[in-house]
Amino acid sequence: METKVFTIQEALAKVVGNQHLTRSEASQVMGTIMQGEATPAQIGAIATALRMKGETKDEITGFAETMRSHGNHVQAGSGELLDTCGTGGSGIHKFNISTASSIIAAAAGIRVAKHGNRAMSGKTGSADVLEALGVQISLTPEQASACLHDIGICFMFAQLYHPSLRHAAAPRRELGIRTIFNMLGPLTNPAGADRQLLGLYDRTRTETIAEVLGELGLSRALVVSSHDGLDEISISAPTQISELRDGVVRTFDLTPEELGLRRHPIGEVKGGEPAVNAGIIRSIFDGKERGAYRDIVLANAGACIYVGGLASTLADGVELAAAVIDQGRAMAKLQELIQTTGELTHVS
């Protein structure tokens, strides 16, 4: 007996009628998009209609599952694996906090498979700043796997790992609004990371996204969205956190003081072009930066260390992150990443 094909026109009719798609229906819609069988008008319409209705856990999970199945995969071997990234879209041009945090987490001893892209909403994406730091970002799946095996961290440039998403690129750009596609990048790690720190632009969705991560098979995750609009843990205001652990999601607020950190005005964590942000990260890693830039990285790197299982509390994670920087291990891991990616791609 053949399974009935659920068309994108049927999906549009359902969503415009304020009905939710099932996980299977959402998966089929995303398959139509990724196979290049949906028109730009249809892609723009379904993304807008879902945004207006409000995307459900099943809809986001269905889209993410299909995007994962169409992507290129990295063989990560056995063991726990962490990703850290944000959705962007906060409108605040901060520096690359999650990228710096991922390097610190790797230096602490956590296996990290960082997934990221060039700037979409800000000035500098993770790919841009890593490139400015001297990291070779265009690794093949085999090279990324080797990098992860050799030094415990790799970077996977989203454009190379999700080529089918190109069909949605023009409609996304022309719409100019946040849609389900903004949420999908952090949900589609090519190495199958089972732990994650995920920053979200929309504080009303942290619990839903944490539940989606559980549906996608993650064992532990923190989905964070600050009260001052960051898709990071903030040092300027409380941060709402939805924690996935043992299949259960709990949501709470966290203040900078609870992490043992001072508050700073949000303007003090702003970044700029790739070279500027690369300079900020280097100044943190070499110990010259002791203010807001360091503190916000400590908050988020500490969360990575906590999710990675090396600290029993978030505050303990912050302390360990500080030790990793102060002992020169973060800078050493960055240098290792630069050297290894250069060797793998034969760039001197």
From TrEMBL:
Organism: Paenibacillus agaridevorans
The encoding gene: trpD
Catalytic activity: N-(5-phospho-beta-D-ribosyl)anthranilate + diphosphate = 5-phospho-alpha-D-ribose 1-diphosphate + anthranilate
Protein name: Anthranilate phosphoribosyltransferase
EC category: transferase
A molecular function GO annotation: magnesium ion binding
Origin superkingdom: Bacteria
Binding site for Mg(2+) 2: 231-232
Subunit structure comment from the entry: Homodimer.
Binding site for anthranilate 2: 172
